[in-house]
Structure formats: C-alpha cells, structure tokens
Design brief:
Strand order of the largest sheet: 3-2-1-4-5-6-7
Number of helices: 8
Helix content: 40-55%
Number of strands: 7
Radius of gyration: 18 Å
Shape: globular
Structural class: alpha/beta
Length: about 260
C-alpha cells in the first residue's frame, strides 16, 4: 500500500523544482497527480515521465498570477477525476526588492503568486471537499524567510508571511470538516528556479552551489526530493491529526545564536 493510494493530488506550480519532486513522490506512493504551470513544455514532459513509470498524471496550463486561473485549476481536476483529495501550493516568485526600491507593481506580483493564488486554490479545493463531506489535506510550501528574511526579499517576505497566517487560519476554520492544512518553511534548496535567481540577481557562476554549501551547517543545500517525501507524509494519513502546523524545514535554527 502506498501512502497516497488512489488519492487525487493537485500540485500547483508543479512542473519543475520542488513541485515536480512532489509530483514524482506522490505518484510513487500511488496517487493520481495533476500539475499546473504557465509553460506547457516542462509540464507535459513531466506528465510523460510519470506516465512512463506507470503513473497517472495530467498537466493543467495555468498562470497563477491570475486568481481565476488558480481556482480553475481545481475545477479542471474535479472535471477530470471527480474530486481533489490533496492540494499542494508550491508556486513561488522570488524576484528581489527592498523596502526602499520595491515598486507597487513588484509588490502586487508577489502578493498575486505567493499569497493570492494559494488562497483561491485552497478556497476551491476546500469547497470541493466540503461539498462531498470528505476529508482532505493541503500543504503550502512557504519559506524560512517568512520569519524575517534578508533585506532584499521585502515583498517576498510580506507575501509568504501572509501565507503562514492563512495556513493557520484555514486549518483552524476547517478542522471540523476533517481537512488538515499545514505548511513547510523550507530553507535554501537546489532547484532550477534558485539557479536562475542566483545567476540573475546575484551574478553567480557555475560554482554557486558549492560556495553556498560551504556556508551551511550540513555542508549542502536542501534537495527537492527530500522536501517531497516530507510533503507526501503530511498529505497522507500517516501524519495523523496534525493540522495548522508550519514546520521549519531548514538547517538553521530560529532564535539560535553563536
């Protein structure tokens, strides 16, 4: 028996990085998976990869900067499979901005993708679960920067800190519906998106991962497949009654001082 046998799992922002790793792990544990993304090529390639291993998967093209498309992604999965049992919000915008140089347009972009999209995807998924009077699970991929973060992450921190509060609020509101909602504050992770961010905003070269690893306690960055296994556990019944938890998945300890 897989941890997610016969569950219908929607991974928003699932065509690459942590989201794609979650999709792979969920299929391995018996789930039927839908992934969303703006670009068809990586999404369809991932679906083909999962199908080649015997998994069932579909790609839903969606620009999560549009709250309507975030909601519609849930509706498409319900039309295809009849329901959504699990939702993972893994999309994220990490473009840089400080308190002093962030424009209203950049701020709105962060709110749209990092907070508004999860809100309305959760709204649609929870509505489906409540309509069917069935339990469900949701995991929001957040960030350890939600505790404060670096000065150049001001709009990102603002939006992701809002997602922390939303996770707890929604979990409290729907615990009697047996809908469990949790979050992961992930630390520095080796993903395609992080590679692009380091090169675009910090002028990083090909050795940036090695340089970053040397500065970290465990001597390496986090890996998407490790995060994915943790997400699958939270989505599954093996995580018991846990809800409203926002777990620091990081190698730095909040409040610890040297």
């Amino acid at each position: 028996m897989g941890l997610l046998d016969d569950r219908i799992v929607l991974v928003n922002g699932g065509s690459q990085g942590v989201g794609a790793a979650v999709a792979r792990a969920a299929v391995r544990e018996g789930a039927v998976v839908a992934v969303t993304g703006r670009r068809p090529a990586p999404g369809e390639a991932l679906v083909a990869e999962l199908a080649a291993t015997g998994g069932r998967a579909m790609f839903v093209r969606a620009d999560l900067a549009d709250a309507g498309q975030a909601k519609d992604s849930v509706a498409e999965v319900v039309r295809a499979y009849g329901r959504v049992d699990c939702l993972v919000n893994s999309a994220g915008l990490t473009s840089r901005g400080t308190l002093l140089d962030t424009t209203p347009e950049l701020f709105d972009q962060h709110i749209a993708i990092n907070l508004k999209a999860p809100f309305f995807a959760m709204q649609a998924a929870v509505a489906d679960m409540v309509r069917r009077e069935e339990p469900g699970t949701i995991v929001n991929i957040i960030t350890s920067s939600a505790h404060g973060g670096q000065p150049f992450l001001a709009p990102y921190v603002a939006a992701k800190a809002g997602l922390v509060g939303l996770t707890r609020n929604a979990a409290h509101a729907h615990r009697w519906d047996r809908i469990r909602i949790n979050g992961l504050n992930i630390g520095w992770t080796a993903t395609e998106g992080e590679d692009a961010t380091q090169r675009t905003f910090h002028g990083a070269g090909d050795d940036w991962r090695e340089r970053a690893a040397a500065r970290l306690p465990m001597g390496r960055l986090g890996r998407p497949d490790e995060i994915a296994d943790f997400v699958v556990l939270l989505l599954s019944d093996r995580s018991g009654v846990v809800t409203g938890s926002v777990i620091d998945w990081d190698q730095n300890v909040l409040g610890g001082l040297d």
